[in-house]
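Q: Convert this sequence to structure tokens.
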Amino acid sequence: MSARTRRTGRARILTAAALTAAALTLTACQDGEGVHDEGASAASVSASATPTSASTVGSEDSSSSGKSAAGKNASTSGHSSAAAKSSGSTGGKGSAGGAGGTGAGSTRTRCSTSATRTTATVVSRPLNHLLLTVTNTGSKNCDLIGYPAPRFGEAQAVPPVFEASKPQAVVTLAPGESGYASVLLSSADGSGANGYTAKSLEVYFNDGTTAARPPLPAKGVHVDDSLRVSYWQSTLDDALAW
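A:
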């Protein structure tokens, strides 16, 4: 065999081998099998991972934003609720409840003999003094207005009052509470005139309608033209100061 013939045969063999390899490679690619280019595969994986990562970040941002919005809305709702509660409380108190309701609902009347008990007690100090005690026996507060008008025996005139004894406020008696007034019966040094012994007493309140009739000692009390009364007082000591 000549050298030319050998070269031609070798070239044909190489060509056939190349064609065979190409056919096998093409078949493997079509079947989804065989060896893939690692560089192309990595690029493909990286490219496909990027949207997933971006989607995840976007989701986190959206969740964070949603939480912030929810917190803001909750905070705003809380402030609005608190403001409404405060406004409602103030409105209720000013309109119907609280101080307004108390003022409108309070009932104050003058003390009268029908809802009180009156006693008259002769005291040792000061001398020649009688203590009048009025106790509220009713179920409502009542006011002791001004001063009592005692009438001893058959006397016609109302005794004058110690003007300086006038309290700064009206004496109000809650149920069960007492108010006081003192009566100077006669002068301590005997300088009083027109004295007499009284064995009965009527005490008129400021309403001027009815009179209480507290009993006096059996021997009566001595009265002269020094007769004076104090304004109604809230304490026994204030009453006996006159």
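The two ends are 167 Å apart (CA to CA).
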